[in-house]
Automatic annotation (TrEMBL):
Residue spans crossing the bilayer: none
Species: Chromobacterium sinusclupearum
Highest taxon above the source species: Bacteria
Listed Pfam families: Hydrolase
Protein name (database record): Haloacid dehalogenase
CDD domains, per database record: HAD_sEH-N_like
Amino acid sequence: MSSKPSVLVFDLGGVLVDWNGIDPLMRLSGGTLPREDARRFWIENPWVARLDLGECTPQAFCAAMVDALHLGLSQQAMQEQLSAWLVGCYPGAGELLDTLSQTFPLAALSNNNALHWNKIEREFGLLGHFQHTFASHLLHLRKPDLAIYRHVEQVLDLQGEQIAFFDDNIECVEAARAIGWQAFHTVGFEQLQATLRAQGWL
């Protein structure tokens, strides 16, 4: 069990929000894209970085994505797919945050984009649970680059083990651990809950 943090910081997609860009991407590729390659696409592809950093529109990203992966879709069809892959909050996510907020300040730290962020704001009723939201496309910083973690520390006026962080991508978790955060690799809502209980924070 770790020391009690001063704040809990959550990734959104794959942790509190039902976002799966991996399985649909594999299906669209007709099985030519292995699972790990599909996962790493969202971490390593330069067009994903541009989208996350707010340096291109979702429309431009979708056109580039279709071309890069030879998906045989129109840009508009790809954009509709991309939006649909963001399903909603996991059942119980809001209630979990309500419970945690009685003990901890809460923050969100998400690689995101204008298309998904607008949908989260309009439809999901999630962002009001957080005292701070750190979205990559608004900050022009993205995980796992060190600068975004340092920005979070500066805004929160906290550092190291004072911050507990939950993310479904191991690269983002390892970067947080490298600067001393208590960082946990949690894939999906059930694993998030189990980790919080194991730490004695839920």
